[in-house]
Amino acid sequence: MRIFELAREQAVIASVEAVIGWDQETYLPPAAATYRAAQLSWLSAKAHELATSSQWQCALEAAEAADTGAEVTRHANLREMRRAFDRATKLPVALVAREATACSLAKHAWAEARERADFASFAPHLSGLLDIAREKAERWGYPDEPYDALLDGYERRTSTAAVAALFDSLRPELRRIAACAVEVSAGHAPTLPPGPYPIGAQRRLNAQIAADLGFDFQAGRIDTTTHPFCTTLGPRDVRLTTRYDEADFTSSLFGVLHEAGHGMYEQGLPQADFGLPSGSAVSLGIHESQSRLWENHVGRSRAFWLRWYPAAQQCFPQLAGFPLENFLRFLWRAAFSPVRVEADEATYDLHILLRFGIERQLLNGSLAVADIPAAWNDAFRDLFGFTPADDRQGCLQDIHWAMGGLGYFPTYSLGNINAAQLHAAACRDPLVAAATAQADYGPLLAWLRRSVHAHGATLDPADLIAQATGSPPSPTDYLAHLQARYV
Amino acid sequence: MRIFELAREQAVIASVEAVIGWDQETYLPPAAATYRAAQLSWLSAKAHELATSSQWQCALEAAEAADTGAEVTRHANLREMRRAFDRATKLPVALVAREATACSLAKHAWAEARERADFASFAPHLSGLLDIAREKAERWGYPDEPYDALLDGYERRTSTAAVAALFDSLRPELRRIAACAVEVSAGHAPTLPPGPYPIGAQRRLNAQIAADLGFDFQAGRIDTTTHPFCTTLGPRDVRLTTRYDEADFTSSLFGVLHEAGHGMYEQGLPQADFGLPSGSAVSLGIHESQSRLWENHVGRSRAFWLRWYPAAQQCFPQLAGFPLENFLRFLWRAAFSPVRVEADEATYDLHILLRFGIERQLLNGSLAVADIPAAWNDAFRDLFGFTPADDRQGCLQDIHWAMGGLGYFPTYSLGNINAAQLHAAACRDPLVAAATAQADYGPLLAWLRRSVHAHGATLDPADLIAQATGSPPSPTDYLAHLQARYV
Asked: Suppose B249 and one of B114, B145, B197, B347 were both cysteines; which one would form an S-S bond, judging by CB atoms 3.0 to 4.6 Å apart?
């Protein structure tokens, strides 16, 4: 059992890192930023030392040798710990250090390049990071193409070909629905009554709704930040963050619904197994399915607002004369934006399809870094019908590549697809359907708890979806949902 | 220079512990408390391992061997690191572990015993902790009596006899002044106009005043907690905490003045030497001198309120008809309370004299644990003229003994004495005196920065006082201050 003790020690270190990271994004005094980096790097060095130590290796080997496979969870834990150990130890320390330095420089270069819409000054950094990504892929190994190895870090045992097939089957319908949604919206998109929507009132409404959905405030909280996120600081300690716009209360509210979706997943994982695979989230695509389910399938539904609009009207008197139908049309507005993070539900995935195509070409060598802007703009014009004003609004808009996050983007759309498939499956349970229609989400959360959360990372994402919904990942439910809402 | 690198690593660990501890007292969700203990204990184990390692020992010895004494700060750093290393390594690991367990049990037993005013149920725990304290004292060694060794942990190179002499010279005058202050106050103690004093307004006023005094909010912040404290989370990261009473805005304000005094000391230490003795506070008695100076000598002065009372009246309209003179008499009210933490400036030290006497007798064996309640009540009656209603209001009121903090109490009164002596010395500088009379505290802070803060822990507390004020620690200025304010 020694390996499980080591894994729990590893979890303590990771959780301390999470506390430090959370504080950095919420309450850190400006002048303290430099030293915070020293604290984080000491912690990650300790974590890396432990997880790649010979002590760890021996303990893992001993446990594997003793494993009969009879205890299913134990067996799955050992399998995933082996996978993590191999991935960690296949990379030489020098490569990891080289990547950390390259990312640190690339982030600064990206921020400056983006500011000046000057892709050329970022290109050498991206080339360097691409070389490192290729070397990592070679060292990790892959079945078909280098991108497989990167994707595997976010969405384990998911092949590039499978994602490409899924996205291909999504594309034509998605384009049709998005075009239709944008056209309808352009015809009659109501605007929200003018603010201010006081922050105190937003805070109270958000907390009331999050608690009603099932986010446990005994084991979590909501704070304020610039770039909202959800992080877990230990068992029963899940921190959501949001930001407030006094002109639009739905901005913080939908932020909270999204992060609370992540948070309820974390709170629903087997807490006694904290730090073991069986107590951990399985993948980004599953994590994002939980946030998108609560944000879009619940939070943008008519049933939800039939219940909550009166409360919102009480918080914000300016909504008194704004009918629910107008409010819903405001929530369901759609427009083609050049910027992913400003995209609505109907157009979001087009941004992801574009990025996935470019990343895959970069990795397999069919696209050169210097040609990214042209390729981006061509693909964008094809999907959206216009060209971004500049690279700031185009291929320089996201920080992901500068952080070494090649392979990350597809998980956003996998999350959308998974969310719809899980929501549809849950609603085939008559109890869930009846309650959901009344905006009572207890049965829905209970369904997610037992079908998704309880499994931790013991099943692969695709198997988890198949087991929970009865069929392998497919865009059918997602397209049906978009069609129903936007067409 | 290797030992200085190790010391800086040690400081990183300690600072991470400080982040975790700060979060625990401010924002931790209730259900997360258990795991927080695991995080803290992992960190303190790592810190202890490093600071008592043979690697540390060798590096320290190498640096000592190379030390010519020519670099004064370096020499002082090595001397204090040696002192800390010897103190840490003289205690066997088993004893440290035994104390941690005993304290953990004692804290629970104390809380229950206090609730039920049942000293007998706490007595065995205190006996055990006293045995441990005696064993620690024997292992550390001491010049005259075991209490020396404990006191040395809080107020280095300060002898019990010196403290006793200081307190003896304080006692008669203190009793006379306290009795007089209580009598005057009983005659005409005004009460503050009724609340509510809204928390938001308190927060703004406190922050405005703290910033004006010189607390740097770029390198610190104020949050809310149950038991206010100040903690340093890294260079340029000093966190104050306070609590709010809607019936009395002075409660949070004087809390903030006190903690800001601690905070400005921390912010004034040489930040580049963070984690080395030269970048650390020297002792509790010096730390407390800074908090008490800003709280009592500045914050309760007429000059301060001549400047700030109009701002307070603007924040809290109910003060409009409450004259400044009444407000000052409210601030200067005095009463004999059985409870130390409720005591005012005029009576506070009597509580400390009582505790110091009992602790010293316990350590030298002239008082048995079972006899504490009787000894406490006798001493209390002698000093205050009445007997506490029960042990809850008497010898069970403080948590310090249950935390293994024998030897801590005297530092509160040393702080008061040092505060007065430093303030009087600073005000002998005509620039400081003139500015202070106008409630401009820039020159006072600058004087403290160069006379106290800049030295870190390179001078012993008594030498620091002597060097800063021109004479060894003495109660003269403190008694003059109390006499002027209360008689």
From this structure: B197
